[in-house]
Amino acid sequence: MNEDVREDGADRDDRAGQRDCERSRPAPAGVGHPRPPQDPDLHDTPPYGTPGPWAPAPPVQPPASAAPPVQLPAPTAPAAPPAPPAASSAPAPVPPAAPPLPATAEPVPGAASGVRDPWARYDPWAVSRSAAGPLQRHGGPGTPARRRGRTRKALAGAALLLALVSGLAGGVVGVWLERDGGFGTVELPQAAKEPAGRDPDSVAGIAARALPGVVTLHVSGAAEAGTGTGFVLDTRGHILTNNHVVAPAGADGVITVTFHSGDTAQATVVGRDSGYDLAVVRVKGVHGLTPVPLGNSDNVRVGDPVVAIGAPFDLAGTVTAGIISATRRPITAGGEQADGSDVSYVDALQTDAPINPGNSGGPLLDAAGRVVGINSAIRSADGATGPEGGRAGSIGLGFAIPVNQGKRVAEELIGTGHATHPVIGVTLDMDYAGDGARVGTEDGDGGPAVTEGGPGDRAGLRAGDVVTAVDGRRVHSGEELIVRVRAHRPGDRLDLTVERAGAVRRASLVLGSSDGG
Questions:
Q1: Could you give the CA distance from residue 310 to residue 363 in angstroms, rounded to a whole number?
Q2: Whether 13 is catalytic
């Protein structure tokens, strides 16, 4: 019994060894079929047993390391197993259960020959390294539904991008069209050309007629220089201007006259008077002069339109316009000399037409283009009143010598070289602080304040009398009385209102004459 069992076990071992030998023994080249992709399982356990219809075909598993391809030997036909011994008539005894085989390592095919078998450790249920990612369900990447979703998103993004680009391009084009007016040449609407002529009574018409007769004077002397304005009186070359314009030239200075046409000529002083602040110069050898017509300052009324022409800050031919703000405005200008010989007393026309340094000596024209005043002084913001207003600009307070006074003085200067001043023959107390002009107690040399046999003496004036009005117009100071007197010619009769010892009396006075300086 035991022998049979041992024999059966031996037979099994022999068969297993024979199969191992057959596996390890190479088959002759070209004999049999190619070796199957896997070794037969000794225990016929699926899926390692004989491949059946349900066993999956193993995928090709690349070798773990790059090795040259190995040509597997062709298997040889297995040898026929030995015939079992003849069965005896007696029933075969049941062999006892075979003891478990020891767990021995399966020999690796090809290990003996040194060639690694790529199918040696194939496991169809093991997770492939190249396919270690998560399982994909329906609708995953690459499915038609997912591809349609990506397509819709791409189309929506492209549409949004197109809208943004189109909006940006439209904005840029719109800004360019708004700024440059579109494509091609830019042509803005413009009024058609009109006739050059203007209404004679307009500012443009007045300026067009007067500018050819207005000149600019550049004066230079040994110590100082200046710029002023003047206007032509006649065709002989006489030009009227202010005394303070030509004063820097002195006795041997240079006076250059520039006409509106740009032509220049040298001028000489014919005569000048500091009390009236007027002077006449003359140019010789100049033909085609255009005199500016003279008006009548007695006809001027407050509110009348006026035009001023001059060279403020040496800007020749400057035209400004305004109105007459006041008439017979008493002003004094100058006073830089210690003896007061340069002080001018003017019963002026006040205007708001802009007058600036350099306008001095220029004409103040009425609506008909006639001279009604000679621009002479301005009131500046710092309170100064003078020929140049402290070199400040206009604040709308300009003053002009009435042309009636200027005409008389100019005629005298052209005729005799000097002007006469009307006088009343008394010395005034310029320090009197009361209302009116008071006759002093003595003159500057200590003599009597009332000149004996003079106009005042003949009118009955006495020292200490206070003159309160001239021709019915109130007088508030000594300067104002002088201005009122200077506004007349020598020989004119004045009606004076005089206070003496609290009593008011009237006096009629005929103006005398004195030579001006």
A1: 8
A2: no
Give the whole-angstrom CA distance, residue 381 versus residue 491: 39
* 14 classed as catalytic: no
Per the listing, tokens 């060894």 go with: 17
- Residues whose CB falls within 8 Å of the CB of residue 215, separated by 6 or more in sequence, listed in order: 229, 230, 231, 232, 239, 257, 258, 259, 260
341 is catalytic: no
Catalytic residue of the set 117, 238, 274, 277: 277
Question: What's the pLDDT tens digit per position in 239-254?
Answer: 999 999 999 998 889 9
- Report H helices in 282-379: none
> Out of 171-175, 201-205, 266-270, 324-328, which region has the weakest mean confidence (pLDDT)?
171-175
Residue of 297, 325, 360, 380 marked catalytic: 360
pLDDT at 16 exceeding the cut of 70: no
Q: Exactly one of 244, 394, 429, 477 is catalytic; which is it?
A: 244
Q: Which two tokens stand for residue 494?
A: 């004045």
> What span, in angstroms and rounded, lies between the C-alpha atoms of 75 and 31?
7
Residue 493: CB atoms within 10 A of its CB come to 12
Task: State how far the Cα of 398 lies from the Cα of 406, in Å rounded to an integer.
Answer: 17
